[in-house]
Hints:
Layout: H1 2-10, E1 12-19, E2 22-27, E3 31-36, E4 50-56, E5 59-65, H2 66-69, E6 82-90, E7 93-101, E8 103-110, E9 115-116, E10 130-136, E11 139-144, H3 152-170
Parallel strand pairs: 2-11, 5-7
Antiparallel strand pairs: 1-2, 1-8, 3-6, 4-5, 6-7, 9-10, 10-11
Amino acid sequence: MEAKTKTTLESKQYLTFMLDKEIFAFEVLKVKEVLEVTRVTKVPKTPPFMTGVINLRGGVVPVIDLRVKFDMAGKDHNVDTAIIIVETEFDGETIVIGALVDGVKEVIRLDASQIEAPPKVGMNVSGEYIENIGKKGSDFIIILAAGKVFSQKELEYVRDVSRTEDEAVAV
């Protein structure tokens, strides 16, 4: 019984999703919700990775295309395309960001024994964005660090866009 409790304490849950043919994940505690692709409003003069903003229950949420962010080839949206709403901390406040992905797979639990540090070379995605690599069966899962996927400058930009758009909606 004691071993089971220890294993439970050492494990975490992750929401897995697809980008190209790779499996990625965010820790479930960082995920607020998953949405079907909805109308995204373009914002002028934004960086290429920022698809635009969506209205989420009256709040403005910037949407980032992870394919563009990770220098992957573009892909048309289909029925599987989703927006994962992720929360991260920046300058003492919570920033809410939508991450556009090819499709959401499932929530999985990984024990500490199934998680390793990312390799220094050979990854399709920059190591700075990767928290760890998980292994589930024969699949490798690239676990992203929600707070590191976006640079400080990008988070400032997203925060400012959210504030500006919120003010515009309030007027």
